[in-house]
Amino acid sequence: MDTKLLEKKMENISPFELKNRLIDMADESLKKTARTMLDAGRGNPNWIATTPREAFFLLGQFGLEECRRVMDLPEGIAGIPEKTGIASRFEAFLKKNKSVSGAKLLEQTYSYLLMQHAADPDCLVHEWAESVIGDQYPVPDRILHFTELLVQDYLSQEMCDNRPPRGIFDLFATEGGTAAMCYIFDSLQENFLLNKGDRIVLMVPVFTPYIEIPQLDRYQFQVTKLHANRMSPDGLHLWQYSDEDIDRLKDPSIKALFVTNPSNPPSYALSPETMARIVKIVRDDNPNLMIITDDVYGTFSPHFRSFMAEIPYNTLCVYSFSKYFGATGWRDAVIALHEFNVYDRQISRLPKEKREALNQRYASLTLQPEKLKFIDRMVADSRQVALNHTAGLSLPQQMQMSLFSSFALLDKENSYKLKMQDIILRRLHALWDNTGFTLAKDPLRVGYYTEIDMLVWAKKFYGDEFVEYLKRTYNPLNVVFRLAKETSLVLLNGGGFDGPEWSIRASLANLNEKDYVIIGQGIKRILDEYAKEWKK
User: Fold this and answer.
1) Torsion angle of alpha carbons 125, 128, 129, 133, nearest 10°?
2) Tell me, what's the pLDDT at 514?
3) Do 228 and 239 contact (CB within 8 A), yes or no?
């Protein structure tokens, strides 16, 4: 197919589906050369956190010992862990294995829960043994007791900058952040909190599924998009929002605000001024606004404060462990909702016929379905209610989540966090320094991704006439197609995230520093070639 025609046809396809086509093109390029394909499209990191994994696998050995202690048949059949005396056996196990990798984190996590949460030793270790072995259904189904305590503390540290609001956040452990968002959309609609035709706001650019889900036939929400289109005096993107746009949230007909903070793909945290403005709008103008925030990249931002910290009553927070700990395959995430929240209140204020319909929906779960919390309704909805008895994230996943959390909580020097931020920053500079473009200092930049608007730099280097030539002559996808075909570099189009049409998005997480040098040089070469063609 003609390249121009293909570019036109691919304009409306999801950038993640486009990525597969670009990879095919890059593969074709590889067949003709000795180049290695560099895929900076998807945000899957190329690092892992080792210590919590070492602790997990060591705990697995203890769990197997406990099972074999109960029953050990030569055919490879064992029993299940017994609770009585299991803590003392665990302490002996740690003493015997104190020099083994992971033992220190297990011991420190055990002591942390005993000292900070007055955990019953046998209850704690029994939950751990069953979790790592995975021999039971999740009970409680929303999240295990000790997992919830550790993750609550972790979110207070990482999402609230160690200054959490009063009260408790209830947590629902989910199969990654995408599952969390699916559950949220479904339960908001099932519980009449959002209905077909309701008005919602998306802050864009944003992770593509958040653009696509509201358009599905089952939702059909009226979507207002707030664009991060503020520019600096010298014409560079700030990736922040105008006060005028934020003030549109004052309209009480807007039911929900969906935000990714820090953003994807620009990878900037919301400014404190914008956060404060939204908080004031909710308090003064739109007190029933539901805020759904995806904060997966918050740990890469120093002293990050989520909406869950600033305005907990209105906020549903989704946090995934996948990026920070290099654990996309673990599918570990949580939904956090404050014990006092607008979602429960709005359900209690529904018209009688809707409340009765909901009571009937959840009647099989409790004798008082009208008192069922919204977060527990999400758990039930995730299993079509009827299968609620099998709901919940698998126990091994929850155990690894617990150890990810304690690892960060016990890292008092923040050595892991500082190194993560340093790795990202070095890759960011490796890319930008080789484009010839200027990367202005900005404390709100996180840098997990970077978004480069080619038209901004076309204008800076060659002027407005060149910009008009590019728009007249080429499709915005031409840059990513050309990178894939000519240089085996796979990047995504920023337009697919509702960013500037001519922007390109690169993940800074999944390649090595030297690879970003090559990507930067490839971007510069293509812009220079456009300019040569224009000058002819």
Assistant:
1) 180
2) 94
3) yes
Q: How much is the pLDDT for 10?
A: 53
Place of tokens 């390249």: 3
Q: Pick the residue with more confidence: 321 or 389?
A: 321
Write the DSSP string, 216-269.
Answer: STTT--EEEEEE---B-TTS-B-----HHHHGGGG-TTEEEEEEESS-SSS-BP
The predicted structure's pLDDT at residue 34: 45
Q: How far apart are CA 492 and CA 276, in angstroms?
A: 32
Question: Please, which pLDDT band fits residue 131 given cuts at 50, 70 and 90?
Answer: very high
- CA 439-440-445 angle, 5° bins: 90
Average pLDDT, the chain: 93
Q: Are 534 and 462 in contact (CB under 8 A)?
A: yes
DSSP-assigned beta bridge partners for residue 204:
227
Could you give the CA distance from residue 113 to residue 151 in angstroms, rounded to a whole number? 12
* pLDDT greater than 50 at residue 343: yes
pLDDT range class, residue 22, cuts 50, 70, 90:
low
Neighbours of 383 (CB within 10 A): 14
169: part of which helix (H) or strand (E)? strand 169-175
**Above 70 in pLDDT, residue 1?**
no
Which tens digit of pLDDT belongs to each residue from 370-406? 999 999 999 999 999 999 999 999 999 999 999 999 9
Stronger pLDDT, 23 or 527, i.e. the higher one:
527
The H or E element containing residue 200 is: strand 199-204
Prior bond to 262 cis, omega within 30?
yes
- Selection from 390, 381, 339 nearest residue 369 by Cα: 381
CA dist 105 → 21, 78, 130, 407 (Å): 43, 27, 19, 7
Identify which of 57, 510, 160, 450 has the alpha carbon closest to the alpha carbon of residue 328: 510
d(CA 480, CA 487): 10
Q: List helix spans (H) across 433-512.
A: 454-462, 464-473, 478-487
| Bridge pairing between strands 332-338 and 449-453 | unpaired
Contact 43, 207 (CB under 8 A): no
* Tokens 């944003």 -> residue: 206
DSSP state of 390: G
pLDDT at 208: 83
Alpha helices in 103-241 (DSSP H): 103-117, 121-133, 145-158, 176-190, 208-212
Residue 489 pLDDT? 86
pLDDT score, position 204 = 96
Dihedrals φ, ψ of 166, to 5°? Answer: -65, 155
State which amino acid sits at residue 191: N
Q: How far apart are CA 30 and CA 514, in angstroms?
A: 19
Question: What's the chain's length in residues?
Answer: 536
